[in-house]
Amino acid sequence: MDKIKIGKYCGKGVVSFIVPVYNAEKYLSRCIESLINQSYREIEIILVNDCSSDKSAAICDQYAEKDKRVRVIHKNVNQGVSKARNEGITLANGELITFVDSDDYVSVLMAEDIVNNMTDQVDMVVYGKRVVTMDSKVLFEERYADTKSSGLEIGKTLNNINMAYMYAKVYRKSILDISPIRFDENASMGEDSIFVKEYICHINKELITSSKCFYFYVRENNQSLSNKYYDNLEYVYGRIWKQSELLSKRYPEYILKGTKNTLIITMVIQNLYAKQSKLTFRKRVSVIKKYMDNDIDRLEMISLDGKGMQTVIRRICFKLKNPYLLDFIFFIAKQIKTLCYK
């Protein structure tokens, strides 16, 4: 049975920060410090320790003992980040919810700004982010204009925001609970995009984008999704596309790029050459050939717009119907990239 340490704090107007924790002892204190030092004090911090094997559990408990606003759940079995976030949503007392990954941190002004922006007429706020190194050196920013949209005009706004991640955004618990909207626990990746798009499909009031970058996304050397290999991408991107279609129906000015097939094929092929992929030459070619032998898939890949190098290479190889050439180019590119980051 999971062990839950629940703080007694349930102030009016509370903002809930949900933090999934797994083997994060190197970063966790910085993350929690950025939350307990918020200028707006009416907050709760929900730490969901997903059966960590390092000192993360002890760090969580130390902060819970020092600050009554910190609530800790200790999982007895590792069940993944989506399950951890979902349990955090269920336990949250606050009407306003935002998520922070345990290796990241936020500005101490974030909660105050959330409360100022999330009036009764607003259902969502989207902030920018700063991508930083472990020692807080800024690599780049993703910053938005200050906008306020409602109704069908939200569709235009969606074309300019990144819906691939759930952090740096603020949600209403009442909307999450009524629908209900939760993270897909069967998705190995892409669960953030599914969650964000599903939520936006259910908002009825204003959506605000802020020019403020309150979220600090910490990137270690050579940290990239392209390093990881995933098994169920067809399921994941099928769900992402379905949710994107629903979003487009709700907001007609939201532009869908490509097709379901081109999205899935592009991501599956990219995944074949992930650093952690152990697939053989024969297996990689068989996957590519499956798509090239399907006339609909092949024609859609040939007609896919885009001037990026990978897009152009895929387009040419699909036109030539040559899986061996595509595999050769992408495999050599993977080897060169691996050597460069050693």
Structure description:
- The protein is of the alpha/beta class and 342 residues long.
- The chain folds into two domains: 3-224, Spore Coat Polysaccharide Biosynthesis Protein SpsA, Chain A, CATH 3.90.550; 257-340, no CATH class.
- The protein is 42% helix and 19% strand.
- The mean pLDDT is 93.
Report a brief summary of the structure.
This protein has 342 residues and is α/β, with parallel strands linked by helices. It contains 13 helices and 11 strands.
**Main sheet characteristics:** 11 strands, mixed
Query: Which CATH class of the largest domain is shown?
Result: Alpha Beta
C-alpha geometry: globular
Topology pattern, helix = H, strand = E: EEHEHEHEEHEEEHEHHEHHHHHH
Give the beta-strand count. Answer: 11
Radius of gyration based on Cα positions: 21 Å
Give the termini distance in whole angstroms: 43 Å
What helical percentage do the residues reach?
40-55%
Count the helices. How many?
Answer: 13
The domain count comes to 2
CATH architecture of the largest domain: Alpha-Beta Complex
The structural class is alpha/beta
As residue ranges, the low-confidence spans are none
CATH superfamily of the largest domain: Spore Coat Polysaccharide Biosynthesis Protein SpsA, Chain A
- Average pLDDT level: 93
Question: What is the strand content?
Answer: 15-25%
CATH topology name of the largest domain: Spore Coat Polysaccharide Biosynthesis Protein SpsA, Chain A
